[in-house]
């Protein structure tokens, strides 16, 4: 298969109807923070055990098309020795890999960040492809605070995202392009829309300049929300409408899919808003998910590192995957949340 056909095929598998992506690619630092908050020992074994719990959940593959892994997890196996990428592949789930090395302070821009990881990326991508990865993720972090973000920070992050995307496609790996506008702070939804628009505009400009095949990427954006500390919070309908409106203005129809991040919204908000967007008629691209916390948080809280809690935690994860998969088709109803308590 030629390279652009392979990219198109992988991208369309990832946004198959009713399915979306599990982002299980927390760096060790982030995962340790989550484990600590749940009262779990912060060790390589516990990070592995949580991932095994998620990946071996019966029936999750009906709702999950791909899983993004972190480098450590990519090299780990189930307790009985099956490497995680092979386990996922055998379940019909596409293995993916986070390849950025994190957001670092941007020189000359007080308090702003630039995502690193381009050095040696071509060689790392070739190794990940050989290990079974068919898609990748790079997350740019854009924070809102007063005058920030600066056009400088937006510009360099967009440039790096496009360099990463071009290298991925050269390696036959579908790049998930993730410019995350962070929703911490007290900004209004108007400001969120303004910044999200500026960021998407800069990103697609750079993707064009750097000759990235739009049919072979997925975009992972934030929803357009008011900052979590803003006193005026929009309803879910307004979030869904403003988000689609912003994306339609800035994301070319050649892009096969939008896969939202959950970004700290409650599980039900993240699910309901995705559902509403999928009910608002056909869009130029598939409207799907790539949730981290939105799929895992309840399972982690239930598990708490206790082997006896694995089955109950898997039930939680399966429930969220099922609800989010339904939202992907516009078929979620809040009553579905009660089905878990009824069966627990
Ligand atoms: P959340 O869904 O928890 O925001 O994580 C998605 C992700 O991969 C952020 O990079």
Quickly list its features.
single chain, 344 residues, 47% helix, 10 strands, two-stranded antiparallel sheet, globular, alpha/beta, binds 1,3-dihydroxyacetonephosphate, TIM Barrel
Q: What is the topological layout?
A:
Blueprint: H1 3-14, E1 20-24, H2 28-37, H3 44-55, E2 64-69, H4 71-74, H5 84-90, E3 94-98, E4 103-105, E5 113-115, H6 121-130, E6 135-142, H7 151-170, E7 174-181, H8 189-209, E8 218-219, H9 236-250, E9 257-260, H10 267-279, E10 286-291, H11 293-303, H12 310-328, H13 336-343
Parallel strand pairs: 1-2, 1-10, 2-3, 3-6, 6-7, 7-8, 9-10
Antiparallel strand pairs: 4-5
Bound molecules: 1,3-dihydroxyacetonephosphate (13P).
Describe the structure.
It is a single chain. The protein has 344 residues and is an alpha/beta fold. It contains 13 helices and 10 strands. It has an 8-stranded parallel sheet. Strand 7, helix 8 (189-209) and strand 8 form a beta-alpha-beta unit. Helix 8 packs parallel to helix 9 (236-250), helix 9 packs across helix 10 (267-279) and helix 10 (267-279) packs parallel to helix 12 (310-328). It is globular and about 50 Å long. The structure holds 1,3-dihydroxyacetonephosphate (13P). 1,3-dihydroxyacetonephosphate binds at residues 23, 139, 178, 261-263, 291-294.
How many distinct beta strands? 10
- Helical residues, percent: 40-55%
Spatial extent as radius of gyration: 19 Å
Bound compounds, please?
1,3-dihydroxyacetonephosphate
